[in-house]
Amino acid sequence: MNYLTIEMPAYKPMYKTWKRYGWKKPEEKANTREVLLQAGRGYCMYCYVRVLVAGKFYGQLEHGIERANSAWLAECVPNIGLACSLCNESFKKVNQNERMLGTEQIDRFHSKARCAVYQKRKQCTVPCKALRELQKEYHQSEKAHFILQPMGTTGEKSGQKLTIAYDILKDKFLPADNPLYDQQDRKFIESHIQRFHLNDPEYRTRKLMEYVKLVVDMAGELPEYEYNHLAVELFAEKISELSKEERLKICEKIYIIQFASI
To answer: What does pTM read for this prediction?
Structure first.
């Protein structure tokens, strides 16, 4: 196993058939928040910082394809994700007006979709074909080159799920090492990384390095606390299967390289 690279996971919300989900009604909104918190482990689906702290929720439900495009998108369950306030209210809003969909695109979506709220059908909790087609049209704008959550995004030509990885030694988020990615895929993922400032000095996390130092200070023991970044939790899970000596060796290597680069 590669302990120096963390691949950020795809989100797979487990909706219950006997529950109602949505964005407007309080009970449906609470149900949606609960299932998305479970899918995202309590972290923002865009920048991976913790939004559930000591049982208190500090995040927001957000719409992947902005609901301003169509009222149908407001209650479209697969289009509802979970984000921190900074990602939702600041980073994602940049260029929002420039990526608005056209009337013909929305009319085509309405003609093909069978949205439960508007046509009194059974609630859908997976992206329908019409929504996926709308998503592709949405991504035609360079201003919309970021990975929608929790739906995920696939490469236009490669058909590969676009995934972000965290290189621990470089202390940097990068496109995942998928040999089937083409240049367009990698550029798209880099655009997501830039939009949500994952590598910017002002915003990027140092929490994993803090965790690594704790493991070193504790001679390979695993510190137990509420992780404040998903990358920390995933790294902790990876090294938990190792012996104390192996964990210490890996973390010492990371710490020395990071210390030398400062």
So the answer is: 0.93
